Amino acid sequence: MVSNLCHSCPPLTRIINTSRPFHRTTINSKQLSSAINHPHPISFFLKRSHSTSGTNLFSVIISRYPCNRAFPLLAFQRSEKPLPTRKLHEEEEEQERDMTIKPAVRVSDGKLIVKNRTVLTGLPDNVVATSGPVEGVFLGAAFEEGNSRHVTSLGTLQSGVRFMACFRFKLWWMAQKMGDSGSEIPLETQFLLVESKEGSHLASDGGDEEDQIVYTVFLPLIEGPFRACLQGNTRDELELCLESGDVDTKASSFTHSLFVHAGTDPFATITEAIRSVKVHLKTFRQRHEKKLPGIVDYFGWCTWDAFYQEVTQEGVEAGLESLTSGGAPPKFVIIDDGWQSVGGDQEKDGEKEPALQRLTGIKENSKFQSKEDPTVGIKNIVNIAKEKHGLKYVYVWHAITGYWGGVRPGVKELEEYGSLLKYPNLSNGVLQNEPAWKTDILQLQGLGLVNPKSVYKFYNELHSYLASAGVDGVKVDVQCVLETLGAGLGGRVELTRQYHQALDASVSRNFQDNGIIACMSHNTDALYCSKQTAVVRASDDFYPRDPMSHTIHIAAVAYNSVFLGEFMQPDWDMFHSLHTAAEYHASARAISGGPVYVSDAPGKHNFELLKKMVLPDGSVLRARLPGRPTRDCLFSDPARDGVSLLKIWNMNKYTGVVGVYNCQGAAWSTLERKNAFHQTKSDAITGYIRGRDVHLIQEAATNPDWNGDCAMYCNRTGELVALPYNAAMPISLKVLEHEIFTVSPIRVLAPGVSFAPLGLVDMYNAGGAIEDLRYEENLGNGSVGVERLIGAVTMEVKGCGKFGVYSSEKPRRCCVGTNEVDFDYDSASGLVTLSLDRMPEDGQRVQLVEVEL
């Protein structure tokens, strides 16, 4: 809409006084039609009345101020009974207030108001609001002079709200922090979700919006060469921090540095917010728009925790042989750090620190060269992996700068890349959160940075060499280091953009399956320019020798996936199958929706555990979405509060899955600036699980009239419960304990007869095995003396093993393919189980299972 009157519409022109910001008048139906169809619509709010002649008249308040979207027209019938003049005026004023359609998110009188609820108060005058989509607003700020770093208050966070923040506790990685005051919001917060506490998360989705919880998403953005983040201060204010990473890259005015969006469904609100930012920035794509590489549907092995940098060609082959012989054949391998040609700088007199290793050549080192023919290079182990051990994909590791210390300057064969030694300059927030950086070897010895103008040539020559050897993809590590190296190069955002555009182009050209995993990459500089990469490591590493790390890891991957999962499929990292916390990690990977792979040393495996995730052909039952905390866990703190369990939900095609974890006892400490143990209040914590914990469980129901009842199958105990809609089932877990529930919508086939598919019940993600589901109902009454056939259920099932369904009545018979098979029925729970003895026949992806009732 426009603020200036358009003189192409005389009937409307004559009745509007454009000298006043708001103007009340009366128009007839013809004039109203003209206003509605006006080429430059005007903001207006109306009330219908009648003239003495019976003609419809409309009392109108017309605004000369612009509005960026069309308002619906609301008409009200006047009371037939005359009202006193004063009461009539009061009624009109009240109706005018009601009919003023306000943006869902707006700044008014120094307040940030979200769906008529105040979230921030005391916004300073230098904060600039720019209207965005219907449910959002952009915020920026004006400063008196240009600088490379600015911090401004955004006002005080109101009491009565809770937040969940994803912040960088290290340069490379994010973690979660919960709280209810501005002072608790950490430095380097890149994603902030705020909950207005009115209402309950159990309220009906169709209830009055005023009684529902409102979720507000704060997304600090990239604006020009500046990157924004959020932080709190001791006055409970939310602050916006803007940095270019280059003292010569300055600005003083910002308009689109923070996007604020709101809604009543937290997950949909986040997705819509990211979509709005995508439309605004035009620099990245969302997860669902990207091609997922084939590795996500298969079991894999990574060499890192098995060998670290001592990996050899012989070690790789030993690991593949060991896993395959035990019945858990990997179909992809990641040859991690240790295969490249690297070396340190020449030592200087008096130096005590070991030299930082830098890349000295594009090709592999001698460990990966065949003794018989060194020219074959890394292709030798690639051929062994694929031809001898049946692997589909081979990935290798490299840093985004080539190696940890970059590309060594002065090496003759690498001179064309123009590498120069640069020293990291970390942001204030990262240094405060990770003070150990002050003595990091990279900080002390610098990094050999390839000239941004030559970085595509560097990537393309590296990747084309690997592709020619049969390598299918790369794990690209150390990505956040780029933000520290932007001085003299236009700043952190510009350097990151140049490197990622070159990386995307090279991957697209050389790895047709979009073979790339992003690692150590949790800064928004990279996320908001990611167009190609579809898989991202979700948290800090799995540390097999650090007992503190395991609960921290599960909590971090789940909460980080709330944000990261909008851009890419989160990868919850490798783990050891033979470990005290192996089941804890394995079950989480199985429901994560991302790749499943281990880093076992050869001969050190738990095959019983692996077979809960891996089918005999090396494929996995992958859930369809990123695993995320359930709605009622978003603002609890399952790592610190001593009373909460973490519940993680995901979806299959016809079922859902919920994992429950006790993650208490350790977390990143705000005071110590590192991970630390803390006391827990009890040995076991009791929580509750319900069918609707699977946020999108309605999508798995085949009946549009589904009543919300679910069958809940417990993987550990084998117990099955038919749970009515919104009913809760208690569960108690000690630290490092977990449980997985398959959640399946119950379909009523006839009065007293109901059914729900479960899947391969010995697998963690049992329901992932069901790829198609068809119901046939009301099949007839049968002949005399023959029990009536109520219906039949046909399922297409991937894999083999123990298959289960819920049925309130004992089935008449069960068939696999055309063969009738034996089955067991537990009348107390309704659990039906049968055996699928073998994988589908050659050339067949699934096998048919039919249950007659």
Automatic annotation (TrEMBL):
Keyword Ubl conjugation among UniProt keywords: no
E.C. number: 2.4.1.82
Gene3D superfamilies for the chain: Aldolase class I (3.20.20.70)
Enzyme category, top tier: transferase
Domain of life: Eukaryota
This protein's record includes keyword Transferase: yes
UniProt keyword list: Carbohydrate metabolism, Glycosyltransferase, Transferase
Sequence intervals crossing the membrane: none
Reaction(s) the record says it catalyses: alpha-D-galactosyl-(1->3)-1D-myo-inositol + sucrose = raffinose + myo-inositol
GO molecular function, one term: galactinol-sucrose galactosyltransferase activity
Pfam families documented for this protein: Raffinose_syn
Family membership noted in the UniProt record: Belongs to the glycosyl hydrolases 36 family.
Record-linked PANTHER family: GALACTINOL--SUCROSE GALACTOSYLTRANSFERASE 6-RELATED, PTHR31268
The protein's role, per its UniProt record: Transglycosidase operating by a ping-pong reaction mechanism. Involved in the synthesis of raffinose, a major soluble carbohydrate in seeds, roots and tubers.
Name this protein carries in UniProt: galactinol--sucrose galactosyltransferase
Organism: Rubus argutus (Southern blackberry)
